[in-house]
User: Fold these one by one.
Assistant:
Number 1:
Amino acid sequence: MIEKLFTKFANQIAHLTGLPLTFAVCCLIVIVWAVSGPFFNFSDTWQLVINTGTTIITFLMVFLIQNTQNRDGAAIQAKLDELIRVSEAKNTFIGIEHLTEAEVQEIRAKCEVAAKRHDDKVATMAAKKVVAAKRKPKKEAARSASG
């Protein structure tokens, strides 16, 4: 119950804070604060108001943003895992997000080597097709001239 309520709240706040209007309101607050400086003689209290307000908002937003990012990352990972599971890809890739950074880097390096080998193989095959296509008209022309 609390988790669903927090998720709904976090999603709503994340949505609202990403709106251009929210940014404009925040800019307006800072401008009003800055313009009010001379009226408060740029006092310590005047500075403390903006410092405290921004610190509290930043502190709370870190947790909301992290929660949203964690859920988004987990959802994307689940979708990718499902695509891997139903495709011809190697099912051993499912769950690699739980490995250490070094283990993931090792897998990435192996994938990059395999991709390079594949790219080289495709490039070689394409080159052979181009060469064969260029030779074919010459062979046909030679046959036509002799026949």
Note: The CA atoms of residues 83 and 90 lie 11 Å apart.
Number 2:
Amino acid sequence: MTTAPETISALQGALAAEHAAIFGYGVLGAHLAGVQRQNAARICDSHRARRDRLRSYVEAGGATPVAASPSYRLPSPVSSPRTAAQLAARLEDGVTAGYAGLAGVADASLRRYAALAMQEATVRAIRWRGSPSAAFPGLTSAALYPRAEK
């Protein structure tokens, strides 16, 4: 079965976000202990499961899944449990943004899958952050407001 190019592109975008999250959780986990470390490990396992499912969707659609990069540039250094939690929240925001394109594809089952993934990532970001950061996590404020035409 061949899937529409825009659906493959959306799947690849979500997959790339999952790759980045898995890498980031590997880094931040080293700065956590106890329950926080266990929680981070469970979340990383969840991202791995979503990554694997996305890979299977891409392959079933007749495309080659985007590979993970050997490393990723982190938005800030991680040196403490506080900075690890900040990174985790940002990673989850990135996952939410990564699934946004998939939430708009024609396939209803993929839209549901994306919506659930976005919901889970948003809840995790709020938990890591301790409060919501934005009305629409993953979107910059510039993306929320129309621009005047020139």
Note: The longest helix spans residues 34-60.
Number 3:
Amino acid sequence: MKIIAATAHTACAEGQKDQIFLANDADPRTLSLDGITRIDLHFPKFTDGRAYSQAFLLRRRLGYTGEIRATGDVLIDQLVQMQRSGFTVAVLREGVDASAAQRQFDRFQGFYQGDAVHVEPHFAETENSAAYAAELSLQDSA
């Protein structure tokens, strides 16, 4: 995950056709993702997690492969969950030290369960992974 300090972030310009800002109460399933390379999802408060659901929907349900950027009240302790939900870039809120972000990722070397980015749980990475992936695909299409 790429980490950007608040002072280095450039918001989506109005009228720019390849980037969009999505309010956290908007439904990403209503978007046309053709030609979109970056989607900014906003956290108005760190306690408001609706953007996690939006990122997950964009990655898993809609198959979006472009940049998903977390903006707003983004704290270091949220970064790992953001990455697992499908975010690729996080803009830390003003006053948060970006150099401490890597330590957060170093604390968690791996996860037993799957997520938006790595669909298979750890136990399915063995010889049964193809059968498990097929089962997940059937569930996602239902």
Note: The longest helix spans residues 129-141.
